[in-house]
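Data availability (excerpt). All sequences and predicted token strings are deposited with the supplementary files. A representative entry, DEAD/DEAH box helicase, is shown inline so that the format can be inspected without opening the archive.
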Amino acid sequence: MSLFNELGLRQEIVNALTDLGYEKPTPIQQQAIPQIINASNDLKAFAQTGTGKTAAFSLPILEKLDLESKATQAIILSPTRELAIQIGKNIEDFCKYMKRVNVVTVYGGANIDEQIRGLKRGAQIVVGTPGRTVDLIKRKQLKLKDIKWVVLDEADEMLNMGFKDDLDQILEVTPKEKQTLLFSATFPREVDAIAKNYMTKPVEISAGKKNAGADKVSHEYYLVSEKNRYPTLKRLADVNPNIYAIVFCRTRRETKSVAANLIDDGYNADALHGDLSQAQRDIVMEKFRAKHLQILVATDVAARGLDVDDLTHVINYKLPDQAENYTHRSGRTGRAGKEGISIAIITNREKNSLRPIESKIGKKFIAQQVPGGKEICEKQLFKLIEKVKDVEVNEDQINPYLEGIYAQLKDIEHDELIKRFVSIEFNQFLSYYQGAEDLNGDDSRERRTRSTDENFTRFYINLGKMDGLNPARLIGLINENLKKSDVEIGQIEILKSFSFFEIDKAFAEQAVEAFQHAEFEGRSVIVEVTTKPKGGGGRRSGKKRSFGGGDRNSGGGGRERRSGGSSGGGYKGKSSSGGGYKGGKKSGGFSGGKRSGKR
Ligand SMILES: Nc1ncnc2c1ncn2[C@@H]1O[C@H](COP(=O)(O)OP(=O)(O)OP(=O)(O)O)[C@@H](O)[C@H]1O
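Structure token line:
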């Protein structure tokens, strides 16, 4: 008898788990599964990233599902399409030996009719993003009157993305008698608020330390100057020829630009962010999961909760505003007990952001040195040798040429021959990194006086730490009031009694308008355009600008609010097949392509 049987799961489920290689329940599964099976209390469950929370809530639901009924009994809400799809697939895997279970996943940006057809067939379990779920409820295609379980996965992120109204609408049409399950890896204040709002006397369980990162992830940082941030990223990719990583950026704009640069520079990279259509996002994810892409450059929202096997690195191109998000980012690696490395590329100015993260994850960042040319060339050389050792020789294809080839090479000694073959690929690397400068350390004095990024308008807001404002709540406030899905948020500076934030200047006028009657926890909010430069702290300059000014910028972008929303636009840069040779499907690493730009 398996340990999963002992938790009260039927044999069909246990068999499916065995197929998936799940031998024993993880700690959160051990606690949550019997709790959900045996009691009807609401549940708040915390466990580190990558410890199997999806199975922890899905398995007991599958166990208790009324298979005689076709009514929707469980609704699982998640912030992004990718995550909803992943959860839906996981549940299908778990119930593959159970008859009469239908799981339907609903999310924006995809054909609604197909989803409606799925619902009509009778879906006992629906996994959805909030926007599309509301849409289907309004169309009377999704009926939640028989709901027994509501699962809020990554609930804090749903609120941060401005889904509060949608969540309210969804929960309103569910029966009073139901079990609400909230699963999270972090414990920001928002999660507490959700529990208060949506749950009745929840039982709380936690496995491991709240907010803690995955156990087997090591955390490293590279201190460099701003101008060396991107070259550092390239060196990290070059020194790890088998890299399979997610690079996190803070904005869509940055995500697009880093991905475009990597592609131009010959790496197997692409971008994942909310400006892409659903189809584009699917293609990128498919290529990444199949390891045809080695580097996925993503925003926090797009990559929240993604479970990709065997990532070697998570790279924080810029650290997130909120320490909690770092936990979610680094948790993409080191999953299911495996090891992983989470890297932060930081400047002097960002060094202070490490401490709050360290206290959240309960671990120290280790300072690392950006590798020099010699180290990179050595790694690449041995990667090349490995490739030579592993290459499959297609005898039939090559045989007809061999005689001629041998004839041409007959005067070259064996040792010399090896050197020459290796050099064909390696020379490019050697010459690229010859005399490459040391990128370590940030001695730039560019900080503090830098003026605001010309694409953003900077605002003063009369709320600060004292009012309970933090970056996530500020972003939520902006999204809530702007009621706009495509607004890019730049730098945020939360001070004691007031704060500053930047948003895409194309939306400056709307923002001023939108905040005129805004409130925050019963306080009226004052938002004004300010010309004060970044990083100074102190009082605002007082120089008010007449609203409505500023250049129009059609750039769009910004923080994803809605998983189903923005389908247009998107990254249309060169396809990942452009720029240099990228080796075979699973080859990994730099494979002799061009290297351009700063080394
Ligand atoms: N009991 C188990 N034994 C082996 N592998 C497991 C077990 N439970 C889950 N896994 C695997 O562990 C990985 C992480 O699981 P899952 O995605 O549910 O994590 P999570 O806790 O939801 O993470 P996050 O907080 O990052 O969203 C998945 O690949 C899953 O298949």
